[in-house]
Amino acid sequence: MLLIIWHSRTGAARAMAEAARQGAAREGPVRLLAASEARAEDLLGAQGYLFVCPENLGTMSGAMKDVFDRCYYALLGQIEGRPFATAIAAGSDGSGAERQIERIVNGWRLRRIAEGLIVNLEAQTPEAILAPKIVPQQALQKCHDLGQSFGAGLEMGLF
Description:
The chain is α/β, with parallel strands linked by helices. Helix content is 45%, strand content 22%. It has a single domain, classed as Rossmann fold, CATH 3.40.50. The chain is built from 6 helices and 7 strands, in the order βαβαββαβαββαα. Strand 3 and strand 4 form a beta hairpin. The longest helix is centred in the C-terminal third of the chain and has 20 residues, at 137-156.
């Protein structure tokens, strides 16, 4: 089963996670879980992980970081080698959140199976940053495709 853990304040990362879920569901079992609800047992019960969140102030959102803070040591040495991917909703860059997640999951010895997907929504003013987001269809399709390929890879035993 693919576990998609997401956090969103403005709707962008949630829309991206849902698009990935729809793609993955075409291939096999998938679970969409809000970051606030994710527990170590949830991660332990999954075959692979897709982490979807916004980049806030150059890093992953605090709610996504909280998942790692709560689960890291409980899972250390138990999920090594499992596949992961990331999808980041960004106002401009997104690479800071990407790097931060990468550093943390390297400690778990997870294996990246896809290049990080960063959706740049070009929100640069306080008003634009805080406003509800509409993710362009082309970007949602990329999230769908990521979920579908991840789900297919899990079902075929490639990951």
